[in-house]
Inverse folding.
DNA sequence: AATATTTGTGTATTATAATAAACAATTTAA
DNA sequence: TTAAATTGTTTATTATAATACACAAATATT
């Protein structure tokens, strides 16, 4: 298999997702920061794939109405019993 | 609609997921902590729905081979253009 | 029942995410 | 092309996640 996904990849992808959604809603980093009661620097770092806290991530996810999706995805994973259903 | 999902709900669900997967693999909190080079206290707090860092979450997700799933889910969300496809 | 293992909880310390402010670099609008 | 807005980066400070103990409570194991 080519291209195993790394933790860094996921952090970069999360950052991209934030940036993309933010731009769809025509918000600046500053706008988003104010809306979520976070500093612009926190948004800035997150969008560039740096580490963050779960609260920060979930605030952002929630702001773009994706919290329910995430919750259901987690429920799904929990009910998917095991290791790589490849059979 | 009844029961809007909150950030706290998602953190609790993440903790549950960790606990469940860990038990499937017959690991103690200590085992998992050692495997991921984290303290048991960090695992302990995470499983009980406390705040954590993204790195901690992704280390855990990765250990249970769910990183790829998560990445694909994020890609999916990124390509799902907009607000509640309810139409 | 007694012992061993695991989990929950407390305190103190360290590492680092988050904040705040300023300024440069870049992008967008006039 | 200039001005305005946005984004990137730095430094210093504060808040808090993570660590490293220890010990009690709860769950298995014998």
């Amino acid at each position: 298999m080519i291209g195993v996904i790394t933790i860094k990849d996921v952090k970069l992808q999360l950052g991209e997702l934030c940036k993309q959604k933010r731009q769809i809603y025509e918000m600046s980093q500053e706008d988003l920061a104010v809306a979520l009661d976070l500093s612009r620097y926190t948004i800035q770092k997150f969008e560039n794939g740096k580490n963050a806290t779960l609260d920060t991530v979930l605030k952002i996810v929630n702001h773009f109405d994706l919290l329910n999706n995430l919750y259901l995805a987690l429920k799904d994973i929990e009910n998917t019993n095991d290791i790589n259903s490849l059979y």
Observations:
- Chain A touches chain B at residues 4-7, 9-11, 13-14, 16-17, 20, 24, 51-55, 57-59, 62, 65-71, 73-75, 77-78, 81-84 (CB under 8 Å).
- Residues 38-39, 41-42, 45, 50-53, 56 of chain A lie near DNA strand C (CB under 10 Å from a C1').
